[in-house]
Design goal:
Number of strands: 12
Structural class: alpha+beta
Distance between the termini: 50 Å
Number of helices: 16
Radius of gyration: 31 Å
Strand content: 5-15%
Helix content: 55-70%
CATH superfamily of the largest domain: MetI-like
Largest sheet: 6 strands, antiparallel
Protein backbone atom coordinates (compact mmCIF):
# COMPACT_ATOMS: atom_id res chain seq x y z
CA UNK A 1 0.00 0.00 0.00
CA UNK A 2 2.70 2.47 1.01
CA UNK A 3 4.92 1.33 -1.86
CA UNK A 4 2.08 1.89 -4.32
CA UNK A 5 1.50 5.35 -2.83
CA UNK A 6 5.15 6.28 -3.34
CA UNK A 7 5.11 4.95 -6.89
CA UNK A 8 2.09 7.10 -7.69
CA UNK A 9 4.20 10.22 -7.07
CA UNK A 10 1.76 11.84 -4.63
CA UNK A 11 4.29 12.09 -1.76
CA UNK A 12 6.68 14.02 -3.97
CA UNK A 13 3.95 16.43 -4.99
CA UNK A 14 3.16 17.09 -1.33
CA UNK A 15 6.88 17.42 -0.56
CA UNK A 16 7.40 19.94 -3.35
CA UNK A 17 4.28 21.87 -2.33
CA UNK A 18 5.43 21.96 1.29
CA UNK A 19 8.90 23.15 0.32
CA UNK A 20 7.45 25.93 -1.85
CA UNK A 21 5.06 26.97 0.92
CA UNK A 22 7.87 27.02 3.47
CA UNK A 23 10.01 29.14 1.14
CA UNK A 24 7.19 31.60 0.59
CA UNK A 25 6.55 31.84 4.33
CA UNK A 26 10.24 32.49 5.00
CA UNK A 27 10.45 35.21 2.34
CA UNK A 28 7.23 36.89 3.46
CA UNK A 29 8.35 36.67 7.09
CA UNK A 30 11.69 38.27 6.27
CA UNK A 31 10.03 41.09 4.35
CA UNK A 32 7.51 41.63 7.15
CA UNK A 33 10.28 41.77 9.75
CA UNK A 34 12.26 44.31 7.73
CA UNK A 35 9.13 46.32 6.95
CA UNK A 36 7.80 46.43 10.52
CA UNK A 37 11.18 47.26 12.06
CA UNK A 38 12.05 49.73 9.32
CA UNK A 39 8.75 51.59 9.15
CA UNK A 40 8.34 51.51 12.93
CA UNK A 41 11.54 53.55 13.32
CA UNK A 42 9.76 56.71 12.16
CA UNK A 43 6.77 56.49 14.53
CA UNK A 44 6.91 58.90 17.46
CA UNK A 45 6.73 56.91 20.74
CA UNK A 46 5.59 58.52 24.00
CA UNK A 47 8.18 60.13 26.26
CA UNK A 48 8.30 58.25 29.57
CA UNK A 49 9.32 59.62 32.95
CA UNK A 50 10.21 57.23 35.78
CA UNK A 51 12.13 56.99 39.04
CA UNK A 52 15.01 54.49 39.15
CA UNK A 53 16.22 52.95 42.42
CA UNK A 54 19.98 52.43 42.16
CA UNK A 55 21.92 49.58 43.80
CA UNK A 56 23.09 52.01 46.48
CA UNK A 57 19.49 52.82 47.36
CA UNK A 58 19.59 56.27 45.80
CA UNK A 59 16.87 57.35 43.43
CA UNK A 60 17.14 59.32 40.21
CA UNK A 61 14.71 60.54 37.60
CA UNK A 62 14.97 59.41 33.99
CA UNK A 63 13.22 60.73 30.90
CA UNK A 64 13.20 59.16 27.46
CA UNK A 65 11.54 56.72 25.12
CA UNK A 66 11.39 52.93 25.49
CA UNK A 67 13.30 51.17 22.72
CA UNK A 68 13.11 47.50 23.79
CA UNK A 69 11.55 45.27 26.47
CA UNK A 70 13.10 41.83 27.00
CA UNK A 71 13.23 39.01 29.54
CA UNK A 72 16.72 37.95 30.64
CA UNK A 73 18.37 35.75 33.24
CA UNK A 74 18.46 37.30 36.70
CA UNK A 75 21.98 35.93 37.20
CA UNK A 76 23.33 37.90 34.23
CA UNK A 77 21.75 41.06 35.63
CA UNK A 78 23.33 40.43 39.07
CA UNK A 79 26.72 39.96 37.43
CA UNK A 80 26.39 43.40 35.84
CA UNK A 81 26.14 44.92 39.34
CA UNK A 82 22.37 45.51 39.49
CA UNK A 83 20.47 44.44 42.62
CA UNK A 84 17.76 41.85 41.87
CA UNK A 85 15.78 39.82 44.47
CA UNK A 86 17.35 36.38 45.01
CA UNK A 87 13.99 34.66 44.49
CA UNK A 88 13.83 35.70 40.84
CA UNK A 89 15.27 33.55 38.05
CA UNK A 90 14.22 35.83 35.20
CA UNK A 91 13.59 39.56 35.11
CA UNK A 92 12.27 42.05 32.61
CA UNK A 93 14.40 44.98 31.61
CA UNK A 94 13.79 48.07 29.49
CA UNK A 95 16.19 49.74 27.09
CA UNK A 96 15.57 53.47 27.40
CA UNK A 97 16.72 56.02 24.88
CA UNK A 98 17.68 58.85 27.22
CA UNK A 99 19.54 61.02 24.70
CA UNK A 100 21.54 63.93 26.15
CA UNK A 101 24.81 62.31 25.08
CA UNK A 102 26.68 65.60 25.46
CA UNK A 103 25.72 65.61 29.15
CA UNK A 104 25.75 61.97 30.24
CA UNK A 105 28.06 60.45 27.62
CA UNK A 106 25.59 57.80 26.43
CA UNK A 107 22.27 57.66 24.58
CA UNK A 108 20.88 54.35 25.82
CA UNK A 109 20.70 52.58 29.17
CA UNK A 110 19.14 49.34 30.45
CA UNK A 111 16.87 49.38 33.52
CA UNK A 112 15.39 46.40 35.36
CA UNK A 113 11.61 46.67 35.58
CA UNK A 114 11.59 45.95 39.34
CA UNK A 115 13.80 49.01 39.92
CA UNK A 116 11.50 51.38 38.05
CA UNK A 117 8.55 53.26 39.47
CA UNK A 118 5.25 53.54 37.69
CA UNK A 119 5.65 55.22 34.32
CA UNK A 120 4.54 58.83 33.95
CA UNK A 121 3.89 60.72 30.73
CA UNK A 122 4.42 64.45 31.40
CA UNK A 123 2.73 66.76 28.94
CA UNK A 124 5.56 69.30 29.06
CA UNK A 125 8.28 66.78 28.13
CA UNK A 126 10.02 67.69 24.89
CA UNK A 127 12.18 65.71 22.47
CA UNK A 128 14.69 67.54 20.27
CA UNK A 129 16.40 66.01 17.25
CA UNK A 130 19.74 67.79 17.04
CA UNK A 131 22.33 68.11 14.30
CA UNK A 132 25.00 66.93 16.73
CA UNK A 133 25.02 64.82 19.92
CA UNK A 134 21.82 62.96 19.07
CA UNK A 135 18.44 63.58 20.72
CA UNK A 136 17.74 65.70 23.77
CA UNK A 137 14.99 64.91 26.27
CA UNK A 138 13.93 67.48 28.83
CA UNK A 139 11.42 70.15 29.79
CA UNK A 140 11.19 73.41 27.86
CA UNK A 141 11.49 76.44 30.11
CA UNK A 142 11.94 79.48 27.88
CA UNK A 143 12.78 80.87 24.44
CA UNK A 144 15.57 83.41 24.11
CA UNK A 145 16.38 85.93 21.41
CA UNK A 146 19.82 87.54 21.52
CA UNK A 147 20.17 86.32 25.09
CA UNK A 148 16.89 87.86 26.28
CA UNK A 149 13.96 85.71 27.41
CA UNK A 150 10.93 86.41 25.20
CA UNK A 151 8.62 83.54 26.19
CA UNK A 152 8.30 81.19 29.14
CA UNK A 153 6.10 78.25 30.11
CA UNK A 154 3.29 77.44 27.69
CA UNK A 155 4.06 80.56 25.66
CA UNK A 156 7.49 79.07 24.93
CA UNK A 157 5.88 76.08 23.25
CA UNK A 158 3.84 78.39 21.03
CA UNK A 159 6.87 80.51 20.12
CA UNK A 160 9.10 77.52 19.34
CA UNK A 161 7.75 76.24 15.94
CA UNK A 162 8.03 79.48 13.92
CA UNK A 163 11.46 80.28 15.32
CA UNK A 164 12.66 76.74 14.70
CA UNK A 165 11.44 76.98 11.10
CA UNK A 166 13.35 80.25 10.72
CA UNK A 167 16.50 78.69 12.19
CA UNK A 168 16.26 75.73 9.80
CA UNK A 169 15.89 78.15 6.86
CA UNK A 170 19.03 79.98 7.99
CA UNK A 171 20.91 76.67 8.28
CA UNK A 172 19.81 75.80 4.74
CA UNK A 173 21.22 79.16 3.61
CA UNK A 174 24.51 78.39 5.37
CA UNK A 175 24.64 74.99 3.70
CA UNK A 176 24.03 76.58 0.30
CA UNK A 177 26.82 79.11 0.82
CA UNK A 178 29.30 76.51 2.03
CA UNK A 179 28.47 73.66 -0.34
CA UNK A 180 27.72 75.52 -3.56
CA UNK A 181 28.91 79.13 -3.71
CA UNK A 182 32.12 78.86 -1.68
CA UNK A 183 32.59 75.32 -2.94
CA UNK A 184 32.40 76.59 -6.52
CA UNK A 185 35.09 79.20 -5.84
CA UNK A 186 37.35 76.53 -4.36
CA UNK A 187 36.82 74.38 -7.45
CA UNK A 188 37.68 77.28 -9.73
CA UNK A 189 40.87 78.00 -7.79
CA UNK A 190 41.81 74.32 -7.98
CA UNK A 191 41.25 74.35 -11.75
CA UNK A 192 43.55 77.36 -12.06
CA UNK A 193 46.19 75.54 -10.01
CA UNK A 194 45.97 72.60 -12.39
CA UNK A 195 46.15 74.96 -15.35
CA UNK A 196 49.32 76.48 -13.96
CA UNK A 197 50.79 73.02 -13.49
CA UNK A 198 49.80 72.13 -17.06
CA UNK A 199 51.65 75.19 -18.35
CA UNK A 200 54.74 74.23 -16.33
CA UNK A 201 54.78 70.79 -17.95
CA UNK A 202 54.25 72.15 -21.45
CA UNK A 203 57.22 72.23 -23.85
CA UNK A 204 55.38 74.17 -26.57
CA UNK A 205 55.28 77.57 -24.83
CA UNK A 206 58.14 80.01 -24.61
CA UNK A 207 59.27 81.54 -21.33
CA UNK A 208 57.53 84.80 -22.18
CA UNK A 209 54.27 83.03 -23.01
CA UNK A 210 54.45 81.08 -19.77
CA UNK A 211 55.08 84.27 -17.77
CA UNK A 212 52.05 85.91 -19.39
CA UNK A 213 49.92 82.85 -18.67
CA UNK A 214 51.09 82.83 -15.04
CA UNK A 215 50.15 86.48 -14.71
CA UNK A 216 46.67 85.84 -16.12
CA UNK A 217 46.18 82.95 -13.72
CA UNK A 218 47.31 85.02 -10.74
CA UNK A 219 44.88 87.75 -11.74
CA UNK A 220 42.01 85.27 -11.91
CA UNK A 221 43.00 83.73 -8.58
CA UNK A 222 43.04 87.21 -7.02
CA UNK A 223 39.52 87.80 -8.35
CA UNK A 224 38.28 84.51 -6.90
CA UNK A 225 39.94 85.27 -3.57
CA UNK A 226 38.14 88.61 -3.47
CA UNK A 227 34.84 86.86 -4.18
CA UNK A 228 35.68 84.37 -1.43
CA UNK A 229 36.23 87.15 1.11
CA UNK A 230 32.83 88.63 0.26
CA UNK A 231 31.10 85.26 0.60
CA UNK A 232 33.00 84.44 3.79
CA UNK A 233 31.85 87.71 5.36
CA UNK A 234 28.29 86.93 4.29
CA UNK A 235 28.64 83.44 5.76
CA UNK A 236 29.82 84.82 9.10
CA UNK A 237 26.89 87.23 9.15
CA UNK A 238 24.43 84.40 8.46
CA UNK A 239 26.05 82.28 11.18
CA UNK A 240 25.61 85.11 13.67
CA UNK A 241 21.94 85.32 12.72
CA UNK A 242 21.57 81.58 13.16
CA UNK A 243 22.65 81.88 16.80
CA UNK A 244 20.09 84.57 17.57
CA UNK A 245 17.37 82.22 18.84
CA UNK A 246 17.88 79.62 21.56
CA UNK A 247 15.82 77.60 23.99
CA UNK A 248 16.34 76.91 27.66
CA UNK A 249 15.43 73.46 28.93
CA UNK A 250 16.03 71.35 32.01
CA UNK A 251 16.97 67.69 32.05
CA UNK A 252 15.32 65.02 34.20
CA UNK A 253 17.91 65.58 36.94
CA UNK A 254 17.31 69.34 36.98
CA UNK A 255 20.28 70.60 34.95
CA UNK A 256 19.55 73.71 32.92
CA UNK A 257 20.92 73.85 29.37
CA UNK A 258 20.75 76.43 26.61
CA UNK A 259 20.50 75.03 23.07
CA UNK A 260 20.71 77.28 19.98
CA UNK A 261 17.81 76.57 17.64
CA UNK A 262 20.34 76.33 14.80
CA UNK A 263 21.44 73.03 16.36
CA UNK A 264 17.89 71.61 16.37
CA UNK A 265 16.30 69.82 13.40
CA UNK A 266 12.86 69.22 14.89
CA UNK A 267 11.11 69.47 18.25
CA UNK A 268 8.15 67.36 19.38
CA UNK A 269 5.88 67.08 22.42
CA UNK A 270 5.05 63.42 21.96
CA UNK A 271 2.68 63.13 24.95
CA UNK A 272 0.36 65.84 23.64
CA UNK A 273 0.31 64.67 20.01
CA UNK A 274 -2.82 63.11 18.57
CA UNK A 275 -2.95 60.47 15.85
CA UNK A 276 -3.09 63.09 13.09
CA UNK A 277 -0.10 64.94 14.49
CA UNK A 278 1.87 61.71 14.77
CA UNK A 279 1.01 60.76 11.19
CA UNK A 280 2.23 64.15 9.97
CA UNK A 281 5.40 63.78 12.01
CA UNK A 282 5.82 60.26 10.64
CA UNK A 283 5.62 61.54 7.06
CA UNK A 284 8.09 64.32 7.82
CA UNK A 285 10.63 61.94 9.33
CA UNK A 286 10.27 59.38 6.57
CA UNK A 287 10.70 62.01 3.86
CA UNK A 288 13.71 63.42 5.70
CA UNK A 289 15.20 59.93 5.82
CA UNK A 290 14.89 59.64 2.03
CA UNK A 291 15.92 63.18 1.09
CA UNK A 292 18.59 64.31 3.57
CA UNK A 293 22.30 63.71 3.98
CA UNK A 294 23.49 61.49 6.86
CA UNK A 295 24.74 62.89 10.16
CA UNK A 296 26.37 61.63 13.34
CA UNK A 297 28.48 58.85 11.76
CA UNK A 298 25.49 57.82 9.60
CA UNK A 299 23.30 57.08 12.65
CA UNK A 300 21.16 60.18 12.10
CA UNK A 301 19.81 62.04 9.08
CA UNK A 302 18.97 60.56 5.72
CA UNK A 303 20.32 58.25 3.03
CA UNK A 304 19.89 60.34 -0.14
CA UNK A 305 23.52 59.90 -1.30
CA UNK A 306 23.28 56.13 -0.80
CA UNK A 307 20.03 55.89 -2.81
CA UNK A 308 21.44 58.03 -5.60
CA UNK A 309 24.72 56.12 -5.69
CA UNK A 310 22.98 52.74 -5.81
CA UNK A 311 20.62 53.73 -8.63
CA UNK A 312 23.32 55.44 -10.68
CA UNK A 313 25.74 52.52 -10.31
CA UNK A 314 23.10 49.96 -11.32
CA UNK A 315 22.06 52.04 -14.34
CA UNK A 316 25.65 52.41 -15.60
CA UNK A 317 26.26 48.72 -14.95
CA UNK A 318 23.15 47.82 -16.99
CA UNK A 319 24.21 50.03 -19.90
CA UNK A 320 27.62 48.32 -19.98
CA UNK A 321 26.72 44.68 -19.29
CA UNK A 322 23.72 44.36 -21.63
CA UNK A 323 25.41 44.89 -25.01
CA UNK A 324 28.53 42.90 -24.07
CA UNK A 325 26.51 40.02 -22.64
CA UNK A 326 24.10 39.93 -25.57
CA UNK A 327 26.85 40.09 -28.19
CA UNK A 328 28.82 37.34 -26.45
CA UNK A 329 25.74 35.10 -26.29
CA UNK A 330 24.92 35.75 -29.97
CA UNK A 331 28.44 34.85 -31.01
CA UNK A 332 28.49 31.66 -28.93
CA UNK A 333 25.11 30.53 -30.25
CA UNK A 334 24.92 31.80 -33.81
CA UNK A 335 28.48 32.13 -35.11
CA UNK A 336 30.96 30.09 -33.05
CA UNK A 337 31.76 26.55 -34.17
CA UNK A 338 30.14 24.20 -31.66
CA UNK A 339 33.29 22.33 -30.75
CA UNK A 340 35.52 21.73 -27.74
CA UNK A 341 36.70 25.34 -27.57
CA UNK A 342 33.15 26.71 -27.47
CA UNK A 343 32.18 24.16 -24.84
CA UNK A 344 35.20 25.21 -22.79
CA UNK A 345 34.14 28.85 -23.10
CA UNK A 346 30.64 28.00 -21.88
CA UNK A 347 32.05 26.06 -18.94
CA UNK A 348 34.28 29.02 -18.08
CA UNK A 349 31.34 31.43 -18.23
CA UNK A 350 29.28 29.19 -15.94
CA UNK A 351 32.18 28.86 -13.51
CA UNK A 352 32.72 32.61 -13.59
CA UNK A 353 29.22 33.03 -12.17
CA UNK A 354 30.29 31.10 -9.07
CA UNK A 355 33.46 33.07 -8.32
CA UNK A 356 33.20 34.95 -4.97
CA UNK A 357 32.37 38.59 -5.51
CA UNK A 358 35.35 39.84 -3.50
CA UNK A 359 37.62 38.31 -6.18
CA UNK A 360 35.97 40.58 -8.73
CA UNK A 361 36.62 43.48 -6.38
CA UNK A 362 40.33 42.65 -6.18
CA UNK A 363 40.48 42.34 -9.96
CA UNK A 364 38.64 45.64 -10.41
CA UNK A 365 41.02 47.36 -8.02
CA UNK A 366 44.10 46.01 -9.75
CA UNK A 367 43.00 46.29 -13.39
CA UNK A 368 40.39 49.04 -13.62
CA UNK A 369 41.67 51.37 -10.89
CA UNK A 370 45.44 50.96 -10.77
CA UNK A 371 46.21 49.90 -14.35
CA UNK A 372 43.50 51.42 -16.52
CA UNK A 373 42.74 54.47 -14.37
CA UNK A 374 46.43 55.07 -13.65
CA UNK A 375 47.26 55.11 -17.36
CA UNK A 376 44.37 57.51 -18.03
CA UNK A 377 45.86 59.86 -15.43
CA UNK A 378 49.28 59.60 -17.01
CA UNK A 379 47.95 60.42 -20.47
CA UNK A 380 45.21 62.97 -19.82
CA UNK A 381 45.67 64.36 -16.28
CA UNK A 382 49.45 64.61 -15.70
CA UNK A 383 49.07 68.04 -14.08
CA UNK A 384 47.02 66.55 -11.24
CA UNK A 385 49.60 63.89 -10.34
CA UNK A 386 50.50 62.52 -7.87
CA UNK A 387 46.89 63.09 -6.78
CA UNK A 388 44.83 60.61 -8.86
CA UNK A 389 41.81 61.52 -10.94
CA UNK A 390 40.70 58.22 -12.46
CA UNK A 391 43.45 56.24 -10.78
CA UNK A 392 41.47 55.92 -7.57
CA UNK A 393 38.22 54.06 -6.75
CA UNK A 394 35.15 55.75 -8.21
CA UNK A 395 31.68 55.34 -9.68
CA UNK A 396 32.86 54.18 -13.11
CA UNK A 397 35.11 51.45 -11.72
CA UNK A 398 32.42 50.20 -9.32
CA UNK A 399 29.98 49.99 -12.25
CA UNK A 400 32.44 48.17 -14.51
CA UNK A 401 33.32 45.71 -11.75
CA UNK A 402 29.64 44.92 -11.24
CA UNK A 403 29.20 44.61 -15.01
CA UNK A 404 31.97 42.01 -15.06
CA UNK A 405 30.40 40.28 -12.05
CA UNK A 406 26.97 39.99 -13.68
CA UNK A 407 28.16 39.33 -17.25
CA UNK A 408 27.79 35.51 -16.99
CA UNK A 409 24.17 35.90 -15.91
CA UNK A 410 23.29 37.94 -19.01
CA UNK A 411 25.24 35.61 -21.33
CA UNK A 412 23.58 32.44 -20.04
CA UNK A 413 20.08 33.91 -20.03
CA UNK A 414 20.41 35.35 -23.53
CA UNK A 415 21.87 32.16 -24.96
CA UNK A 416 19.03 30.12 -23.45
CA UNK A 417 16.56 32.50 -25.08
CA UNK A 418 18.27 32.09 -28.44
CA UNK A 419 18.23 28.31 -28.02
CA UNK A 420 14.45 28.24 -27.48
CA UNK A 421 13.71 29.97 -30.80
CA UNK A 422 12.35 27.35 -33.27
CA UNK A 423 14.66 26.36 -36.10
CA UNK A 424 11.76 26.79 -38.51
CA UNK A 425 11.77 30.55 -37.85
CA UNK A 426 15.38 30.81 -38.99
CA UNK A 427 14.81 28.62 -42.02
CA UNK A 428 11.65 30.50 -42.97
CA UNK A 429 13.47 33.83 -42.95
CA UNK A 430 16.33 32.44 -45.01
CA UNK A 431 13.85 30.86 -47.47
CA UNK A 432 12.27 34.27 -48.04
CA UNK A 433 15.63 35.61 -49.20
CA UNK A 434 16.95 37.22 -46.04
CA UNK A 435 20.64 36.96 -45.29
CA UNK A 436 21.93 35.36 -42.12
CA UNK A 437 22.69 38.79 -40.69
CA UNK A 438 19.21 40.10 -41.53
CA UNK A 439 17.65 36.97 -40.04
CA UNK A 440 19.64 37.43 -36.87
CA UNK A 441 18.98 41.11 -36.24
CA UNK A 442 15.43 41.41 -37.60
CA UNK A 443 13.95 38.06 -36.55
CA UNK A 444 16.01 36.19 -33.95
CA UNK A 445 17.21 39.02 -31.70
CA UNK A 446 13.80 40.76 -31.38
CA UNK A 447 12.13 37.47 -30.44
CA UNK A 448 14.89 36.76 -27.90
CA UNK A 449 14.61 40.22 -26.34
CA UNK A 450 12.44 39.02 -23.39
CA UNK A 451 15.17 36.51 -22.48
CA UNK A 452 17.74 39.31 -22.62
CA UNK A 453 15.57 41.37 -20.27
CA UNK A 454 15.33 38.37 -17.95
CA UNK A 455 19.13 38.27 -17.79
CA UNK A 456 19.21 42.01 -17.09
CA UNK A 457 16.63 41.58 -14.30
CA UNK A 458 18.76 38.90 -12.64
CA UNK A 459 21.87 41.06 -13.09
CA UNK A 460 20.21 44.10 -11.48
CA UNK A 461 18.92 42.03 -8.57
CA UNK A 462 22.41 40.71 -7.83
CA UNK A 463 24.33 43.92 -8.48
CA UNK A 464 22.13 46.14 -6.32
CA UNK A 465 22.79 44.04 -3.24
CA UNK A 466 26.53 43.47 -3.64
CA UNK A 467 28.80 45.00 -1.02
CA UNK A 468 32.17 43.20 -0.83
CA UNK A 469 33.66 44.23 -4.22
CA UNK A 470 32.34 47.77 -3.95
CA UNK A 471 34.36 48.41 -0.79
CA UNK A 472 37.48 48.20 -2.97
CA UNK A 473 36.45 50.01 -6.15
CA UNK A 474 34.45 53.10 -5.29
CA UNK A 475 32.02 52.96 -2.36
CA UNK A 476 32.80 54.90 0.81
CA UNK A 477 31.27 55.43 4.23
CA UNK A 478 30.36 59.07 3.56
CA UNK A 479 30.43 60.99 0.26
CA UNK A 480 30.10 64.76 0.88
CA UNK A 481 28.84 65.46 -2.65
CA UNK A 482 26.73 63.62 -5.19
CA UNK A 483 28.55 62.61 -8.40
CA UNK A 484 26.29 64.90 -10.41
CA UNK A 485 26.20 68.71 -10.52
CA UNK A 486 25.85 71.62 -12.93
CA UNK A 487 29.44 71.51 -14.18
CA UNK A 488 30.51 69.76 -17.35
CA UNK A 489 30.41 66.78 -17.80
CA UNK A 490 27.61 66.95 -15.19
CA UNK A 491 28.02 63.27 -14.23
CA UNK A 492 31.45 62.84 -12.64
CA UNK A 493 32.31 59.16 -13.01
CA UNK A 494 35.58 59.48 -11.11
CA UNK A 495 33.93 60.43 -7.80
CA UNK A 496 33.31 57.98 -5.01
CA UNK A 497 29.75 57.19 -4.01
CA UNK A 498 27.69 55.83 -1.16
CA UNK A 499 25.74 52.59 -1.50
CA UNK A 500 22.75 51.24 0.42
CA UNK A 501 24.33 47.82 0.97
CA UNK A 502 27.56 49.26 2.32
CA UNK A 503 25.56 51.76 4.38
CA UNK A 504 23.76 48.85 6.06
CA UNK A 505 27.08 47.16 6.81
CA UNK A 506 28.65 50.35 8.13
CA UNK A 507 25.73 51.36 10.36
CA UNK A 508 25.12 47.83 11.62
CA UNK A 509 28.68 46.70 12.29
CA UNK A 510 31.01 49.70 12.23
CA UNK A 511 28.96 52.34 14.00
CA UNK A 512 30.27 53.69 17.32
CA UNK A 513 26.65 53.94 18.51
CA UNK A 514 25.19 50.49 17.83
CA UNK A 515 21.80 50.99 19.49
CA UNK A 516 21.18 54.24 17.62
CA UNK A 517 22.13 52.65 14.30
CA UNK A 518 20.15 49.42 14.69
CA UNK A 519 16.77 50.82 13.56
CA UNK A 520 18.47 52.46 10.58
CA UNK A 521 19.73 49.04 9.48
CA UNK A 522 16.16 47.84 9.06
CA UNK A 523 15.00 51.11 7.51
CA UNK A 524 17.85 51.14 4.99
CA UNK A 525 17.35 47.45 4.22
CA UNK A 526 13.67 48.17 3.59
CA UNK A 527 14.59 50.96 1.15
CA UNK A 528 17.11 48.69 -0.60
CA UNK A 529 14.56 45.90 -1.01
CA UNK A 530 11.98 48.40 -2.29
CA UNK A 531 14.52 49.86 -4.72
CA UNK A 532 15.48 46.44 -6.09
CA UNK A 533 11.80 45.58 -6.40
CA UNK A 534 11.13 48.83 -8.28
CA UNK A 535 14.03 48.28 -10.68
CA UNK A 536 12.96 44.69 -11.30
CA UNK A 537 9.30 45.60 -11.82
CA UNK A 538 10.35 48.22 -14.36
CA UNK A 539 12.45 45.68 -16.25
CA UNK A 540 9.67 43.08 -16.01
CA UNK A 541 7.15 45.56 -17.42
CA UNK A 542 9.47 46.28 -20.36
CA UNK A 543 10.03 42.56 -20.91
CA UNK A 544 6.30 41.78 -20.90
CA UNK A 545 5.62 44.63 -23.30
CA UNK A 546 8.28 43.35 -25.70
CA UNK A 547 6.97 39.81 -25.35
CA UNK A 548 3.43 40.85 -26.28
CA UNK A 549 4.72 43.01 -29.12
CA UNK A 550 6.73 40.28 -30.82
CA UNK A 551 4.09 37.68 -30.05
CA UNK A 552 1.51 39.77 -31.91
CA UNK A 553 3.97 40.36 -34.77
CA UNK A 554 4.55 36.63 -35.17
CA UNK A 555 0.80 35.99 -35.20
Amino acid sequence: MIRRWFKSGDPWIWLIGGAVSLSVIMVVGLLLLIGVRGLGHFWQPPVVEATVTEASGQEREILGTIRTLETVSAQSVRESGIDVPASLNFVERYLFKLGNRDITGQDFEWFVADNLSEFRYPADAIQLERREWGDFFGYLQAIKENGEVIAEGEAAFEALPPRLARANAIMAEINHLERYEIGQINKNIEQLRLERRRIELSDELTAAEKAQAYADIEQQVAGFNADYEVLFSELNEVRERSMRDALVATTSDGQSVTIPLAHVVRATRANTMGVTDKLMEYGSRFWGFLSEYPREANTEGGILPAIFGTVMMVMIMSIVVTPFGVLAAIYLREYAHQGPVTRMVRISVNNLAGVPSIVFGVFGLGFFVYFFGGNIDQMFYPEALPAPTFGSPGLIWASLTLALLTLPVVIVSTEEGLTRIPKAMREGSLALGATKSETLWRVIVPVATPAMMTGLILAVARAAGEVAPLMLVGVVKLAPNLPVDGEFPFLHLERRIMHLGFHIYDVGFQSPNVEAGRPLVYATAMVLVALILLLNLTAIAIRNRLRERYKSDSD
